[in-house]
What we know:
Blueprint: E1 2-6, H1 16-24, H2 39-53, H3 57-64, H4 73-83, E2 85-93, H5 94-103, E3 109-116, E4 122-126, H6 132-142, E5 146-151, H7 157-162, E6 165-169, H8 173-178, E7 184-185, H9 188-198
Parallel strand pairs: 1-2, 1-5, 2-3, 5-6, 6-7
Antiparallel strand pairs: 3-4
Helix pairs in contact: 1-3, 3-5, 4-9
Amino acid sequence: xxxxxxxxxxxxxxxxxxxxxxxxxxxxxxxxxxxxxxxxxxxxxxxxxxxxxxxxxxxxxxxxxxxxxxxxxxxxxxxxxxxxxxxxxxxxxxxxxxxxxxxxxxxxxxxxxxxxxxxxxxxxxxxxxxxxxxxxxxxxxxxxxxxxxxxxxxxxxxxxxxxxxxxxxxxxxxxxxxxxxxxxxxxxxxxxxxxxxxx
Length: 199
């Protein structure tokens, strides 16, 4: 039995923090897991910038409301879900992801949660579990599933390597160069074909 594990941002939807960086005029917030392997360090740095500028959940959600899935992402996901089970594994947060999941037809998403003060300031975050993507892939495997994984960032590498088949999708030149052993694709059609062959 197969199950496909997909990253969300950069694979199915644009990077939320990059969009918010543009909207807020704070270029430092463009830094993502494509640039920083340590997610905890990255999030604490982001929260410090939000606090410094007096920005909170409402401002980020306003940006997210105007984000659409990447062209072809919903069609890719619909076709893939007709072939096999699919779960999206993301280090994003429920408070960010819901509007995007609606636009993708409500696929299954496993992600994290924010701590939000009454006034809307983001004061912290709760990770679902340690090394969430790898931990989830291993849990699925312990349940009898063969996992196939695809993602674009440093935090996707463990789940990709642990799966029976794994792919980079629209990743950075640096990550592709550092991991030439991982097949890398740029179009949904090519990724779908690679997954189909792996099923």
